[in-house]
Amino acid sequence: MDIFEKIAKHMGPLGQHQKWSHGYFSFPKLEGEIAPHMNFRGKDHLVWSLNNYLGLANHPEVREADAKGAAEFGMAYPMGARMMSGNSKYHEQLERELAEFVGKPDAFLLNFGYQGMVSIIDCLVDRNDVIVYDGESHACIIDGLRLHMGKRFVYQHNDIESARKQLERATKLTEQSGGGILLITEGVFGMSGAQGKIKELIDLKKDFNFRLLIDDAHGFGTMGPTGAGTHEEQNCIDGVDIYFATFAKSMAGIGAFVASSEEMTNFFRYNMRSQTFAKALPMPMVIGLLKRLELLKNNSGLREKLWSIATALQKGLRERGFDLGITNTMVTPVFLKGELQEATALTMDLRENYSIFCSIVMYPVIPKGLIELRLIPTALHTLDDVNRTLEAFSEVAEKLKSGYYNENKFVPQ
Question: Mean pLDDT for the chain?
C-alpha cells in the first residue's frame, strides 16, 4: 500500500477530527497581549489555557531585556552548536544561576523542552539498562522510552508499591545484564495536577540501586518555599539525581535545562546528540531568561499571587461540588461525565455564551466517558475572573446533567 493512502485512511486519534475541529478546538488562535483576557474569533475571552504561571510573558522588565538582547545581538547570534562555535559567557552564566537555584552543582542548557527530555533518556541509558517509569508520564518521556533499546517497566501512577514491584523486576534483569536502573517521574503531572511522590521514591533507594530523574516542567518556579521546584517542596533536593525543567511554563520562554553533578552534566554536554548537532539558544532568549530567572528568584509576590488565585479557584469549585481529582498543585482539572458530543457542545457554550476559554481533554488522554476542563491559574488572574468562572461552570454543569448538550447543537460563530 502507498504510504499516503494508508495515512489518509488512518489520520490518528486526534487527526481524524481535524476537518471539524481545526481552528476552534485544535489550533485555535488567541490574539492580543499574552494575558488572562485575549481575543478569540473576534471576541474578548477570559483565558485559562496559558502556562504563564508567574505572568512573566509580558512583564515590562522581561520585554525590555528581550528587546535589548535582540538589539545588541540580533536573532542569529551565536551561530552554530555550542560545542563548536555557539557558546557564550551568557549561556554559561545562565547555567550557573540555574544550578545554584535548584540545588545542584551544575546545569546544561537545552534548546527545547520536549526534545530535551527525549535526548536525556537517549543519552543516559544503553541496551543493558532498565527504565522504570510512572504510568502517567508526559509524552516527551514516552517518546524517550521509545528510543531505549533495553527493557522498560511501568508502574501505576504514583503507586509506591507498584514502583517497588517494578524495581524488583528491574533489579533481577540488571543483575544478569550488568546494567543499571533509571527511575523517571514528574514533579507535577500537568494533566492531573498531582505531585509526583518524589520523597517516597527516594526512600526506595534503601532497598534498590537506581538513579532518579524528574521532569519538573510545571513545578519549577511554582513549587517550594523559593520556587526552586517540587523537590524543594518535598524537602528532598539531594535525593534527586537528575533534575530537568523547561522554560516554557514559569519562565515564559523557550528551552530547558538539566541539572546534576558536575560529572553527569559534563557527560550530557559531550554526549547529547541533539545539542551537539543543533544551534545554541539565540542570545535574545538567553538574555531574557536571565532576567526571568532574576524575577522568579527575587519577586516572591508573583508566586504568592499565583497561589492565592489557584487556592480561590479550587476552593470555590470544590464548594460547588466539582470533582478536581487529586490535584495538590496550581493545575486545576475539572472532571465531568460526558461523551464527545456533550464535551464539544459544553466547550462551545463556554466560549460562545460565557466568553471563557479553557482547554478540553478527552479520550484517549483520559478514560472514556469523562470530560476534563483544564484550568491554569496565573499571577495575573483576578478574583473577579475566578468568581465569573465559578458562576459559568455551575451553569454549564447543570445543563450537562439535564441533557441539554445532547439536545442542542452548537455551531461556532
Answer: 94
The pLDDT-based confidence of 410 (bands split at 50, 70, 90) is low
**d(C-alpha 359, C-alpha 350), whole Å:** 11
b/e string for 66-101 if b means 16 or more Cβ within 10 A? Answer: beebbeebeeebbeebbeeebebebbeebbebbbeb
pLDDT band per the 50, 70, 90 thresholds, residue 11: confident
- Distance CA(336)–CA(347), nearest Å, equals 12
Q: What is this structure's pTM? A: 0.94
Q: Name which of 280, 266, 219, 377 is nearest 77 in CA terms.
A: 280
In the block, cell 535548584 appears at 102
> Would you tell me which CATH number, out of the four given (3.90.1150.10, 3.40.50.150, 2.40.50.140, 3.30.460.40), belongs to the domain 3-57+300-407?
3.90.1150.10
Q: In 10 A of CB 40, how many CB atoms? A: 18
- Assign a CATH topology to domain 78-281: Aspartate Aminotransferase; domain 2 (3.40.640)
CA 385/CA 134 separation, integer angstroms: 35
Check residue 326 and give left, alpha or beta (phi > 0: left; psi -120 to 50: alpha): alpha
Reading the block at residue 311, the C-alpha cell is 487556592
Q: What are phi and psi of 183, to 5 degrees?
A: -105, 130
What is the C-alpha to C-alpha distance for residues 334 and 357, in angstroms, rounded to an integer? 14
Cβ burial, residue 31 (10 Å; 0-12/13-18/19+): exposed
d(Cα 269, Cα 12) in Å, to the nearest integer? 36
Half-sphere exposure (Cβ direction) of 318: Cα atoms closer than 13 Å: 12
Residue 164 has which C-alpha cell? 517497588
Amino acid of residue 306 = L
For residues 56 and 292, the answer to whether their CB atoms sit within 8 Å is yes
Cis peptide before 364 (omega within 30 of 0): yes
The answer to whether the beta carbons of residues 202 and 186 sit under 8 Å apart is: no
Give the per-residue pLDDT at 293: 98
Worst-scoring range by mean pLDDT, 92-106, 224-238, 337-351?
337-351
